[in-house]
Amino acid sequence: MADDLEHARKRLEDEYGQTRRRFDEIHDAFDSVAHAREDEDLYERLLKLEKKVKKVRTGGWFRPGARGHRRALKKYLAAKAAAEGPQVTKY
After folding, report:
1. What is the pLDDT of residues 2-11, one digit of tens each?
2. For residue 61, which phi and psi values (nearest 5 degrees)?
3. Sign of the alpha-carbon dihedral angle for 62, 50, 53, 27
């Protein structure tokens, strides 16, 4: 059980790190929107920002994006609950 929990924790940290590293793409796209002047196309910049956010959230062919973190978190919480033992409710 401890190995499963440790493995799940390591996987969770790995997925979190992969997702966080992609935040720079979102920040760059947001800065482009935030620093736009009135004579520049805001619509196109916002569209690029939306695409970057979607790419980080859903991933692509080789990267699961934030979905991978969600799956790893679910497995970690299940392993943590299994390691703690059954929940006993007193009435």
Report:
1. 688 999 999 9
2. -70, -40
3. positive
Kindly state whether residue 16 falls inside one of the protein's structural domains. yes
Which pTM was predicted? 0.74
Q: Is residue 91 part of a domain?
A: no
Domains of the chain: total: 1
The answer to whether 9 and 76 are in contact (CB under 8 A) is yes
**pLDDT digit string, tens, across residues 36-78:** 999 999 999 999 999 999 999 998 777 778 999 999 999 999 9
The 10 Å CB-count burial string (b at 16+, else e) for 23-47 is: eeeeeebbebeeeeeeeeeeeebee
Does residue 46 belong to any structural domain of this protein? yes
Range of the domain at 54: 2-83
